[in-house]
Amino acid sequence: KAKGLGKAQICYFQESMQQEFIARVHIEEGLRHALEKQEFVMFYQPIVDPVNNAVNGYEALIRWTHNNAVVSPDKFIPVAQESHLIMDIGRWVIQDVFANHPPFRNDNCYLSINLSPLQLKDPELLHFIDEQAAHYHIKPNQIEFEITETAILDTSESIHTLLAEFVAHGYHLALDDFGTGFSSLSHLRDLPISTVKIDRSLLLTEPQDKREKMLRGLSELIFALDLDVVMEGIETEAQAQLCTALNIHRAQGYFYCKPQPLSIFVSVQSR
Ligand code: C2E
Ligand code: MG
Ligand code: MG
Ligand code: MG
């Protein structure tokens, strides 16, 4: 009987793998034409000071509508990476964000843009960004590029050189999703980042006292290294209060605002 069950499980496994494979092929096929069909749009999510709810930045987040359905970036960004379509999509993101250069920018307001690991292998990336920034009159010091630790995993010298060049050109760098997967203290020490974004999964740590101790210790460590903290995934008042208690002045989450199209914020501003 046990044997039979095992077999059934293997079948199920293969079937779900096959379904996933087919889903990926469909996503990749759709992605190939998504740019020309103008199926992408950028949404923006405010980053807020929990003390006074003042907005001090926005993260740009891509949205893809395909066959009348919205496909989550968590689904299609990995496929875009594997198929290298992320190179063109990533450039479109930068161009679109700069072109619409959000009118809410002020001197203490950052605009954050996610970069996939593969984009950092493009030797022309920084040149492209500089060109677009000049063309749209974007000040590099108002732009923060979010990178994940997977980008640095190959520990190649060239990635470190490239990141240093970003900083030399005036852009800020943030380490995204810290506290998941490969988080390493050496990255906090060695990378030319100015901000660490603590992954929202750490907010879900149980039990509560452990959660608070962990977040306190982590944020104090980051502050001690002269880095700024963004807490991701604030969904409740209690979590917002925890940020205040921990001296965290940049918080992001549905509690404040979901990612929305730019037009929403523009109309709020001009009211
Ligand atoms: P991320 O960079 O860590 O972005 C934060 C994600 O958390 C976003 O998901 C955002 O909508 C979501 N989020 C914000 N507040 C809350 C909250 O309170 N609760 C919950 N449950 N979620 C919250 P999204 O937009 O689906 O993007 C997922 C990931 O896809 C991003 O994670 C990023 O890694 C990638 N991504 C999104 N846009 C881009 C892009 O333009 N370029 C690249 N290369 N990657 C992108
Ligand atoms: Mg991000
Ligand atoms: Mg993140
Ligand atoms: Mg993420």
From TrEMBL:
Q: Which GO terms describe its biological process?
A: phosphorelay signal transduction system
- Does the record bear Phosphoprotein in its keywords? yes
The record places domain EAL at 24-271
Can you tell which superkingdom this protein's organism belongs to?
Bacteria
The entry's keywords: Phosphoprotein
Q: Coiled-coil regions in this chain?
A: none
Q: Which residues of the full protein are shown?
A: 289 to 559 of 559
**UniProt protein name:** Diguanylate cyclase (GGDEF)-like protein
Q: List, in alphabetical order, the Gene Ontology terms for molecular function in this entry.
A: cyclic-guanylate-specific phosphodiesterase activity
